[in-house]
Amino acid sequence: MSSGVHVRVVTRDCNAVATLSNITCAGTDCGKLGRFSCRNCGAVKYCSIQCQKPAWPQHKKYCQAIQAQARQTAELAAELHACPLGWSAEPEDLFQTSVGHFWGMLHPRDYCRARRKLMSTLREYGHEGNSQLALKLALEHALDLIWLTRGDNQGLRHDVPHLQISLGRLREAYDFCKWWLNLDADYDPDDLELPYLDLRGEDVAEELDNLHIKEWGCTSLLLGVALVKLCVMMQIKQVEAFVLGLHDRVGADSPKLHSLSMAYAPWQTRG
Ligand SMILES: [Zn+2]
Ligand SMILES: [Zn+2]
C-alpha cells in the first residue's frame, strides 16, 4: 500500500538527531532507561555512573573516533552551504538546492564519504558497546545520505534494514526492503517527481510471490525480508505460548489458563 510521496525533510547537514527519550542504558545486562549521554560524542546513554564506569575503556577509543569523524563531516558540510559552482555563479547552499543529487554533483562526494564513515563507526560501536543510541544515530545518518543521494551510490540500502531490525523497527525494515526489491530497472533517481521510498505499512505476512521482486541479486535486502519474517514469526509464537499458557514467564497469567480456571472454578468448589 503506497501513501504518496515520502516527505522526509533533510534538516540536518552533518549531525543525526536521534530521539533521545526511551534509550536503554548501554550498561551490561542493565536494561534500565538511559539518563545521561556522553558529553563528548553524544553516542551512548547510561543510567548511572555504575554502568558508565566499567564501559569507559571500550567507549574511550570509539568516543575519540566518533568526535573526530563528526568534526570532519561538519567541516565538509560547511563548505557545501556556500559552494562556488562556477566563475559567475553566486555560491549555492547545496542543502537547499541539490538534495537528491549529491553524488552526481561531485562537490559533495567527500562529505558523503566522511558521513558514511561516521555512520559505520557508530554502527560498529552500537553493536560492540551495546549502545542503542549509536545504532539510532547510525540509522539516521544512513537514511539522510540516501535522501541526499537518491541513486544510493554508496550502497547504504544494504545497511539500513539491518539497523532497523536491530532497533526492533521491523515494519520500517520490511517497507524499505520491499521498495528497493520492487524497483524497476529503468527507474530514474534523478527525476525527483517520481515516488521515492514511499511504501508504508506493507503486509509483513504476505507471500513472497506478492512482493513482485525485480532485484533478486540483492542478498542483503532479501536477507532483510527473511529476518523480518522470522522475527514476526517468533513474536507470534511468543503470543501463542502466552495465550496457551506455555510461556516460561507469563504462562500463569495467560488468558487461556485464566479462562480455564474460571470455567473450572465452580466445578472445583462443588467438589
Ligand atoms: Zn544501567
Ligand atoms: Zn563518548
TrEMBL record:
InterPro entries hit by this protein: Znf_MYND (IPR002893)
MYND-type domain ranges (all copies): 27-63
Single annotated GO MF: zinc ion binding
UniProt keyword annotations, A-Z: Metal-binding, Zinc, Zinc-finger
Domain of life of the native organism: Eukaryota
Gene3D superfamilies documented for this protein: 6.10.140.2220
SUPFAM superfamilies attached to this UniProt entry: HIT/MYND zinc finger-like (SSF144232)
Identification of the protein by name: MYND-type domain-containing protein
